[in-house]
Amino acid sequence: MKTSNRILINTGALYFRMLITVFITLFSTRIIINVLGVNDYGIYNLIAGITAMLSFLSGVMTFSSQRFLSFELGVGNIKKLNDVFATSIRLHLYIGILVTLILEIVGVYILNYKLNIPLDRIYASNFVLQFMIIDVFYSITSAPYDALINSNENIEIIAFIYLIESFAKLGIALVLNYILIDKLIFYSLSLAAVYIFSRYGKQFYCRFKYKNIRIDRIKTIDNVLLKKMFLFSTWNGFGAFCDIARNQGIGVVMNLFFGVAINASYAIAIQVSGQLKYFSNSLLMSINPQILKAQGAGEKERMLELSLLASKISFFLLSLFSIPLFIEMPFILKIWLGVVPENTVLFCRLIIVQCLVAQITMGLHTAIQSIGIIKNYQLITGSLFLITLPIGYMLLRYGFSPSVILIISIIMEFIASCFKVIFLKSKSNFVISDFVYKVLFRGTIPILISVLIFVAQFYSLQLSNKTLEVLLMFITWVLTTLTSFYYLGLSRYEKKFINGIISSVVNKVIGMNK
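Request: output the structure for the sequence above.
Response:
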């Protein structure tokens, strides 16, 4: 299948899944907050923050395995491809067991002796932790199957499985109000069952889809390859751990000073950013295999061009939805939640700024991963993320407002983004001026023009019906932003590429109707 068509199918499947899951997630969150209450919802997300500090390994290991699998697909070596997959299965099993032991020791200690949780909810909180440990184990051991599916660019299957997950979570939210046992415990148990189902669904698909890959025969392990993948995953894991430790650690630091109520506000902000980032990162999930395969095939110029295109378009897609959300945040949260916890609006806006800063170099991150020399890169960027926590802790101790730690996080994200550009330059023939012109200039100028038009409309359009006003403003924003980005943000080659995809879709639709 042509590259453009495959990217189109994968992106379309991911965006369809995104539209459904965003609606389900937003609707479910409102139900869950109302049923559990602010304190229990805060407790759940606080414990989720602890387990997420290690469950991040699932995403890290998936991408690490995908890097090796996609590289070998680019080379065309089926035997080495089998070796990589077999090694990945064994490696993930080891790491899953190790992480489970760490969570049982460290997680239980932190939960019972360090966190500020009401005494009458400690019992339920321990059950929640155990169910989340199960989630973590099955999430980590499913990573090789995610990587195999992503590397073969059958991403629509991943989208389908996660869509089933979303409907299952909605079902859990709907029945939660009718459960007679402790609702927090039941909610955590039900989510664990969903993740177990997802894990075996992926394994079942891989076994029957990829006949040339040994799914069950993993006795022979290449120890040299195991070491190489382990080191790559370790440094990748360090960087991802620092990222998740910053994001979840901010919630823990806030809890030490302000209690569990503020964790509900921060959890909502993280959820908003997660949905927005998923929308823009869906394109990256479609382009990343092409970037990795291009490096494996020795097409380094194409790899760099794809990474620049991925950075620009993913930043544009994030801006398309996050900027109007930023401006209309109070109204949207009121419609979504009904009762908006204190600080939620400010937290959501600051998290959106941080996401935009990170997104503009996201394609460069994939390029660095494809090269494979990541030790110093992960050491420096990871350390920048972690510095947020001690600086934020000290400032909160001196009486600053809780938002200060998020401002520090934005500053560190900006420094890390600058470092990505410099590091990629040092490891390849990457030209910084290309990034400045093709991504920064052509990616941000259309957005700035649209923002000026949007703000002018915001102050001039004052309708009695606020919902209608927001809807009209959003439609105007989307049309203005798409038009300005197409004419000012895309190069002649990129326009030709996109026009070709559109023509292909139109021709298929016409052909189906004949």
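The chain has a mean pLDDT of 81.
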